[in-house]
Amino acid sequence: MKESLLLVEDDVEIANIICDTLRREGYKVTWATTGLEGWEDFKRDTFELVLVDLMLPEMDGFTLCKNIRLISDVPMIIISARTEDIDKVHGLNLGADDYIAKPFSLIELKARIKSHLRRWNMYQGQEDNSALMTFTNGLVVDWEKQIVKFHDKEIFLTDKEFSLLKALALNPQRTFSKGELYELVWEEIDLADNHTVTVHIKSLREKLNDDAKRPHFIQTIWGKGYRFIGEVL
Protein backbone atom coordinates (compact mmCIF):
# COMPACT_ATOMS: atom_id res chain seq x y z
CA MET A 1 0.00 0.00 0.00
CA LYS A 2 1.34 3.43 -0.97
CA GLU A 3 0.79 6.66 0.91
CA SER A 4 -2.48 7.69 2.58
CA LEU A 5 -4.30 10.59 0.92
CA LEU A 6 -7.22 12.68 2.15
CA LEU A 7 -9.73 13.91 -0.44
CA VAL A 8 -12.22 16.59 0.63
CA GLU A 9 -14.78 16.97 -2.15
CA ASP A 10 -18.56 17.33 -2.00
CA ASP A 11 -19.21 16.47 -5.66
CA VAL A 12 -19.93 12.73 -5.56
CA GLU A 13 -19.20 12.09 -9.24
CA ILE A 14 -15.84 13.87 -9.19
CA ALA A 15 -14.90 12.27 -5.87
CA ASN A 16 -15.66 8.77 -7.13
CA ILE A 17 -13.52 9.31 -10.23
CA ILE A 18 -10.60 10.62 -8.18
CA CYS A 19 -10.90 7.87 -5.55
CA ASP A 20 -11.09 5.09 -8.14
CA THR A 21 -8.12 6.50 -10.07
CA LEU A 22 -5.86 6.94 -7.05
CA ARG A 23 -6.81 3.61 -5.49
CA ARG A 24 -5.88 1.87 -8.73
CA GLU A 25 -2.48 3.52 -8.32
CA GLY A 26 -2.21 1.83 -4.93
CA TYR A 27 -2.92 4.84 -2.71
CA LYS A 28 -5.09 4.59 0.38
CA VAL A 29 -7.75 7.30 -0.04
CA THR A 30 -10.04 8.68 2.64
CA TRP A 31 -12.94 10.70 1.24
CA ALA A 32 -14.69 13.47 3.19
CA THR A 33 -17.73 15.28 1.80
CA THR A 34 -17.60 18.43 3.98
CA GLY A 35 -14.85 20.69 5.22
CA LEU A 36 -15.60 19.88 8.84
CA GLU A 37 -15.56 16.14 8.15
CA GLY A 38 -12.22 16.56 6.39
CA TRP A 39 -10.82 18.50 9.36
CA GLU A 40 -11.92 15.77 11.77
CA ASP A 41 -10.44 13.06 9.52
CA PHE A 42 -7.15 14.93 9.30
CA LYS A 43 -6.80 15.25 13.07
CA ARG A 44 -7.75 11.61 13.65
CA ASP A 45 -5.52 9.90 11.07
CA THR A 46 -2.14 10.38 9.39
CA PHE A 47 -1.98 11.50 5.76
CA GLU A 48 0.89 12.19 3.38
CA LEU A 49 -1.11 14.51 1.11
CA VAL A 50 -4.45 16.36 1.13
CA LEU A 51 -6.67 17.25 -1.86
CA VAL A 52 -9.13 20.05 -1.07
CA ASP A 53 -12.03 21.56 -2.97
CA LEU A 54 -12.78 25.20 -2.11
CA MET A 55 -16.59 25.27 -2.23
CA LEU A 56 -17.44 22.94 0.65
CA PRO A 57 -20.33 22.83 3.14
CA GLU A 58 -19.81 23.36 6.90
CA MET A 59 -16.23 24.61 6.49
CA ASP A 60 -14.93 26.07 3.23
CA GLY A 61 -11.70 24.90 1.62
CA PHE A 62 -9.82 28.10 2.48
CA THR A 63 -10.53 27.64 6.19
CA LEU A 64 -9.65 23.96 6.03
CA CYS A 65 -6.29 24.72 4.38
CA LYS A 66 -5.55 27.37 6.98
CA ASN A 67 -6.37 25.03 9.86
CA ILE A 68 -4.33 22.15 8.46
CA ARG A 69 -1.32 24.36 7.82
CA LEU A 70 -1.37 25.59 11.42
CA ILE A 71 -0.60 22.09 12.69
CA SER A 72 1.09 20.31 9.77
CA ASP A 73 3.42 20.77 6.79
CA VAL A 74 1.72 18.00 4.80
CA PRO A 75 1.41 18.76 1.05
CA MET A 76 -1.96 20.25 0.09
CA ILE A 77 -3.37 20.53 -3.42
CA ILE A 78 -6.47 22.64 -4.06
CA ILE A 79 -8.84 21.28 -6.71
CA SER A 80 -11.46 23.85 -7.63
CA ALA A 81 -13.72 25.16 -10.36
CA ARG A 82 -12.87 28.66 -9.16
CA THR A 83 -10.18 29.77 -11.60
CA GLU A 84 -9.81 33.44 -10.63
CA ASP A 85 -6.23 34.44 -9.86
CA ILE A 86 -7.29 35.96 -6.53
CA ASP A 87 -8.59 32.57 -5.38
CA LYS A 88 -5.38 30.84 -6.44
CA VAL A 89 -3.22 33.42 -4.67
CA HIS A 90 -5.37 33.30 -1.54
CA GLY A 91 -5.21 29.50 -1.40
CA LEU A 92 -1.44 29.45 -1.89
CA ASN A 93 -0.97 32.17 0.72
CA LEU A 94 -2.90 30.06 3.22
CA GLY A 95 -0.39 27.28 2.78
CA ALA A 96 -1.58 25.18 -0.17
CA ASP A 97 1.28 23.81 -2.28
CA ASP A 98 -0.53 23.58 -5.61
CA TYR A 99 -3.76 24.58 -7.38
CA ILE A 100 -5.50 22.54 -10.08
CA ALA A 101 -8.51 24.00 -11.89
CA LYS A 102 -11.53 21.87 -12.83
CA PRO A 103 -11.91 20.22 -15.25
CA PHE A 104 -8.48 18.64 -15.03
CA SER A 105 -6.56 15.76 -16.52
CA LEU A 106 -6.28 12.68 -14.33
CA ILE A 107 -2.80 12.11 -15.76
CA GLU A 108 -1.79 15.61 -14.63
CA LEU A 109 -3.34 15.05 -11.20
CA LYS A 110 -1.42 11.81 -10.71
CA ALA A 111 1.81 13.47 -11.83
CA ARG A 112 1.43 16.38 -9.44
CA ILE A 113 0.56 14.08 -6.53
CA LYS A 114 3.62 11.95 -7.26
CA SER A 115 5.83 15.03 -7.41
CA HIS A 116 4.63 16.46 -4.10
CA LEU A 117 4.86 13.07 -2.38
CA ARG A 118 8.44 12.64 -3.58
CA ARG A 119 9.45 15.97 -2.01
CA TRP A 120 7.45 15.20 1.14
CA ASN A 121 9.11 11.82 1.58
CA MET A 122 12.53 13.43 1.19
CA TYR A 123 11.60 16.03 3.77
CA GLN A 124 10.31 13.37 6.17
CA GLY A 125 13.58 11.51 5.85
CA GLN A 126 15.37 14.37 7.57
CA GLU A 127 15.82 14.28 11.34
CA ASP A 128 12.83 15.78 13.10
CA ASN A 129 13.08 16.98 16.68
CA SER A 130 9.97 19.17 16.55
CA ALA A 131 7.92 16.86 18.78
CA LEU A 132 9.84 18.08 21.85
CA MET A 133 10.26 21.82 22.27
CA THR A 134 12.00 23.72 25.06
CA PHE A 135 11.22 27.38 25.63
CA THR A 136 12.80 30.05 27.77
CA ASN A 137 11.38 30.56 31.28
CA GLY A 138 11.08 26.87 32.03
CA LEU A 139 8.46 25.58 29.59
CA VAL A 140 8.97 22.18 27.89
CA VAL A 141 6.33 20.55 25.68
CA ASP A 142 6.21 17.12 24.07
CA TRP A 143 3.56 17.59 21.39
CA GLU A 144 3.22 13.89 20.52
CA LYS A 145 2.89 12.62 24.09
CA GLN A 146 0.96 15.74 25.19
CA ILE A 147 3.25 16.27 28.16
CA VAL A 148 3.78 19.81 29.45
CA LYS A 149 6.40 20.66 32.07
CA PHE A 150 7.05 23.96 33.78
CA HIS A 151 10.39 24.21 35.59
CA ASP A 152 10.71 20.39 35.46
CA LYS A 153 7.30 19.86 37.07
CA GLU A 154 4.57 18.31 34.93
CA ILE A 155 1.41 20.36 34.67
CA PHE A 156 -1.87 18.93 33.53
CA LEU A 157 -3.86 20.70 30.83
CA THR A 158 -7.31 19.90 29.55
CA ASP A 159 -7.60 18.88 25.90
CA LYS A 160 -8.81 22.36 24.95
CA GLU A 161 -6.04 24.09 26.90
CA PHE A 162 -3.42 21.89 25.25
CA SER A 163 -4.92 22.56 21.80
CA LEU A 164 -4.86 26.31 22.45
CA LEU A 165 -1.23 26.14 23.56
CA LYS A 166 -0.30 24.08 20.52
CA ALA A 167 -2.03 26.42 18.07
CA LEU A 168 -0.31 29.45 19.59
CA ALA A 169 3.16 27.99 20.27
CA LEU A 170 3.57 26.37 16.85
CA ASN A 171 2.76 29.72 15.23
CA PRO A 172 4.87 32.16 17.28
CA GLN A 173 4.27 35.89 16.94
CA ARG A 174 1.11 35.28 14.93
CA THR A 175 -1.90 37.05 16.37
CA PHE A 176 -5.04 34.90 16.55
CA SER A 177 -8.45 36.42 17.08
CA LYS A 178 -10.71 34.74 19.64
CA GLY A 179 -12.95 33.66 16.77
CA GLU A 180 -10.06 31.98 14.94
CA LEU A 181 -9.00 30.09 18.08
CA TYR A 182 -12.58 29.03 18.80
CA GLU A 183 -13.04 27.77 15.24
CA LEU A 184 -9.70 25.94 15.31
CA VAL A 185 -10.04 24.28 18.74
CA TRP A 186 -13.80 23.88 19.18
CA GLU A 187 -14.44 23.28 15.46
CA GLU A 188 -17.38 25.67 15.41
CA ILE A 189 -17.93 29.21 14.22
CA ASP A 190 -18.18 31.60 17.17
CA LEU A 191 -21.41 33.29 16.13
CA ALA A 192 -22.34 34.42 19.64
CA ASP A 193 -18.94 36.03 20.41
CA ASN A 194 -18.88 34.12 23.69
CA HIS A 195 -16.11 34.18 26.28
CA THR A 196 -15.10 30.53 26.04
CA VAL A 197 -11.64 31.28 24.63
CA THR A 198 -11.03 34.00 27.21
CA VAL A 199 -11.85 31.65 30.08
CA HIS A 200 -9.57 28.89 28.75
CA ILE A 201 -6.70 31.30 28.05
CA LYS A 202 -6.99 32.58 31.63
CA SER A 203 -6.84 29.02 32.98
CA LEU A 204 -3.88 28.18 30.74
CA ARG A 205 -2.02 31.27 31.92
CA GLU A 206 -2.62 30.36 35.56
CA LYS A 207 -1.16 26.87 35.03
CA LEU A 208 1.86 28.34 33.25
CA ASN A 209 2.25 31.03 35.93
CA ASP A 210 2.07 33.54 33.11
CA ASP A 211 1.17 37.04 34.25
CA ALA A 212 -1.15 38.68 31.70
CA LYS A 213 0.46 42.08 32.38
CA ARG A 214 4.03 40.79 32.11
CA PRO A 215 3.69 37.63 30.00
CA HIS A 216 6.46 35.22 29.10
CA PHE A 217 4.30 33.06 26.83
CA ILE A 218 0.83 34.34 25.88
CA GLN A 219 0.45 38.00 25.10
CA THR A 220 -2.88 39.78 24.74
CA ILE A 221 -3.09 42.02 21.69
CA TRP A 222 -5.85 44.37 22.72
CA GLY A 223 -8.71 44.52 20.28
CA LYS A 224 -7.25 41.68 18.20
CA GLY A 225 -6.62 38.53 20.24
CA TYR A 226 -3.58 36.59 21.47
CA ARG A 227 -0.12 35.61 20.31
CA PHE A 228 2.66 33.38 21.63
CA ILE A 229 5.89 35.21 22.51
CA GLY A 230 7.85 32.39 24.17
CA GLU A 231 11.30 31.83 22.66
CA VAL A 232 12.59 28.39 21.69
CA LEU A 233 15.93 27.36 23.20
Entry summary:
By secondary structure, this protein is α/β, with parallel strands linked by helices. The protein contains 8 helices and 11 strands.
Overview of this protein structure:
By secondary structure, the protein is an alpha/beta fold. About 40% of the residues lie in helices and about 20% in strands. The protein contains eight helices and eleven strands. Strands 2-1-3-4-5 form a five-stranded parallel β-sheet, sandwiched between helices. It has a four-stranded antiparallel β-sheet with strand order 6-7-8-9, with no helix packed on it. It has a two-stranded antiparallel ribbon with strand order 10-11. α2 packs parallel to α3 (about 60-70) and α6 (about 160-170) crosses α8 (about 195-205). The longest helix has 19 residues, at about 105-125. The chain starts with a strand and ends in a 5-residue tail after the last strand.
Essential attributes:
single chain; about 230 residues; alpha/beta; Rossmann fold; Arc Repressor Mutant, subunit A; 2 domains; 5-stranded parallel β-sheet; 4-stranded antiparallel β-sheet; 8 helices; about 40% helix
